[in-house]
Amino acid sequence: MVTLMNAVSNGMDAEFDKSMAMMGQNVVYVEKQPWGGGPNYEWWKYRNRREMKLSYVDQIRQSSELASAVSAAAARGTTLRYEDKSSEGVFMAGVTARYFDTAGLDIESGRVFTEEEVRRGVKVVILGATLAETFFEQENPLGEHIRMGGQRFRVIGVLKKQGKFLGLSDMDRRAIVPIMAYGQVFGLRSGIQIAVKFSDKLSVEEGEYEIEGIMRRIRQLEATEENDFAINKPEAFKAQLESFKTGLYLVGGALTFLSLIIGGIGVMNIMFVSVRERTKEIGIRQAVGAKRWEILSQFLIEAIVMCLLGGLVGLALSYPISILLNQIFVASIDISVVFGAFILCSLVGLIFGFIPAYKAAHADPIESLRYE
């Protein structure tokens, strides 16, 4: 249990850093609603806010002194088709030309959109690696046409493989098109997200305040009015991750503690039985000059070895389970977790084996020799 709990925690930490890189470095997102949820999320308050507009991109770009790139995107799930093949639940995004800078995306083959293609709404598409493999296998997808939303889009690029976001969502099952082409198919009346990238981490905090001021001017808000927009940062996921991990440790810790107590009591009972069955042996050892600490050490070592063997069995079970768990979520067994598990097993053996070992060490030698 301890090993699996730490495997999930380690896997989440490693996957978080990788997933945050997928969202772009030093980027804030201007949206209608803040990220989050839970019982305190005031969805009724955010629902009636004004939508983001595509025109905000140019206004922010012209007004900001700290932003290095500004882009907009709108997204939804859809179905893609190529000849007799189809893929459902594809993440389709309509984006502006600088989106690839703010999102930190790299092209494996082909090219990105030009400003002219975005402005004119040319029906071209860039596919994620998984989609390219699904539709074209070993063929070259560049220049081929796929269908989405009843429209034909020409493939002009394939993204480098990214993997899963937080171990859940496959980021390579995505299709990216110019935002005006997206609007022709699905409309742009809602769901626009504006991404603002800064040159380094030091600029992000100052830039966040700058963007807030620019957005308030764009939205023509009075000094006494609250923001009717949200500025979201990827770090918000870190707080949610820590909250999840805290819950995981509380539940897992309670179950682990309970299992250790039950296992420890089992070890203590086995050792009591062992001491009783070997009472005459203990008496003979005392008669030939064995000291109490030697007998105490013997039984403590036996208890510790018993717990370590149990730990080996637990590790043998945890490793394949963690591999299976990693297929549906994230889990990674670190060598430090293995050492920690064995140290914990040794402590359980030491604590719960002490009373039987103490009883053996302080047994009356005469009574022990008479024991049958």
From TrEMBL:
The keyword Cell membrane applies. It comes from Fodinibius salicampi. This is ABC transporter permease. The chain crosses the membrane at residues 248-275, 295-317, 329-355. It is found in: Cell membrane. Residues 2-212 form the MacB-like periplasmic core domain. Keywords: Cell membrane, Membrane, Transmembrane, Transmembrane helix. Pfam families: FtsX (PF02687), MacB_PCD (PF12704). The keyword Amino-acid biosynthesis does not apply. It is a multi-pass membrane protein. Residues 255-365 form the ABC3 transporter permease C-terminal domain. Its main location: membrane.
